[in-house]
Design brief:
This protein is of the alpha/beta class. The protein has 2 domains: about 10-210, Spore Coat Polysaccharide Biosynthesis Protein SpsA, Chain A (Alpha-Beta Complex), CATH 3.90.550.10; about 215-290, Serine Threonine Protein Phosphatase 5, Tetratricopeptide repeat, CATH 1.25.40. The protein contains 12 helices and 8 strands. It has helices at about 20-30, 50-55, 70-80, 100-105, 145-150, 160-170, 180-190, 215-230, 230-235, 240-260, 265-275, 280-290; strands at about 10-15, 40-45, 65, 85-90, 95, 115-120, 160, 195-205. The protein has an 8-stranded mixed sheet. The longest helix has 21 residues, at about 240-260. It is globular and about 55 Å long.
Length: about 300
């Protein structure tokens, strides 16, 4: 009598720091997946609110690890090191998965990196409800698009093969909000990706989100680009593409500053972007919008 082999295990890693108001919904969405072989690991990164009490309500259905506060990249690495699955999925504590998220990803997981579209919820501002309306998803070899267009992969949408995560070295811990972009670039240097076109994640935008700190994000983008352009594959780029990549990151940082009302910071970032590559029509348009304010739409690659 033949027996079906068990479906590969997926380890879900949820880092959390003081997110008591959102955590329960996030964990329940991981436990409520239709995919049958899942473990959930929550890394409490030194929370000082009622996060530990929220986690106690899940009893033994969730593995909880508590660490001293060391940042979200470190918390994700801690969780990934404990994972027993063949695949690792990451879920931020303020996001929510749709029930079929993992099931749909595993059904197409023929390459090591699979990500999905998302619904934006919360304080959207000018962002659309469906993220791909402003950030088109890309398949296959995404190394150059990730550098030239910015990060179009949402952290909580990713499913990555465990051995590839380890091969890439995990998250670079000095980074926080841009640590995911940095990792996807390193993985994409060697591997292809598949995008699930359906939004399978509700991504929460709120005032406490790390990406709202425009100066911190600008510094992180600069570091990510410096690291990326030092990779063997990127070193083979011509000077034009390298300057375009640097200009695009600066454009996004300028746009972030403009949205925060920090016009001086925006002007500085746009000025640096123009010095790198003044022929970008979108950049010129954003500079004009800064001088003559109008309705703004997010540039491609905006996080």
């Amino acid at each position: 009598m033949s027996h079906e082999s068990p479906r590969p295990r997926v380890s879900v890693v949820i880092p959390v720091f003081n997110a008591e108001q959102f955590l329960k919904e996030a964990v329940e969405s991981a436990l409520g997946q239709t995919y049958p072989n899942i473990e959930v690991i929550v890394v409490d990164d030194g929370s000082t609110d009622n996060t530990p009490h929220v986690l106690e309500t899940f009893s033994e259905s969730v593995r909880v690890v508590r660490t001293a506060n060391g940042g979200v990249a470190r918390a994700r690495n801690v969780g990934a090191a404990l994972a027993t699955g063949d695949w690792i999925a990451f879920l931020d504590a303020d996001d929510v998965w749709l029930p079929t998220k993992v099931e749909e990803q595993m059904s197409v997981a023929t390459v090591p990196l699979v990500y999905t579209d998302r619904f934006n919820i919360g304080e959207l501002g000018i962002l659309p409800v469906i993220q791909s309306d402003v950030n088109p998803l890309k398949d296959g070899d995404i190394f150059v698009p990730l550098l030239a267009r910015g990060n179009f992969i949402t952290m909580s949408s990713v499913l990555v093969r465990g051995d590839v995560f380890k091969e890439a070295g995990g998250f670079f811990e000095p980074l926080s909000a841009a640590a995911d972009w940095d990792l996807w670039i390193r993985i994409a240097e060697r591997h292809t990706a598949i995008a699930c076109r359906r939004p399978l994640l509700r991504y929460r935008i709120h005032g406490g989100a790390m990406s709202r700190n425009h100066r911190g994000m600008a510094a992180e983008r600069q570091l990510v680009v410096d690291r990326a352009l030092s990779l063997p594959r990127a070193r083979a780029f011509g000077p034009v593409l390298q300057r375009q990549i640097r200009s695009r990151a600066l454009l996004t940082s300028g746009w972030d500053a403009a949205q925060a009302g920090a016009k001086r910071d925006a002007a500085i970032e746009y000025g640096k972007a123009l010095l790198q590559w003044p022929f970008d029509r979108e950049l010129v348009k954003e500079v004009l919008r800064l001088l003559v304010p109008q309705n703004q739409s997010a540039p491609a690659g905006h996080r």
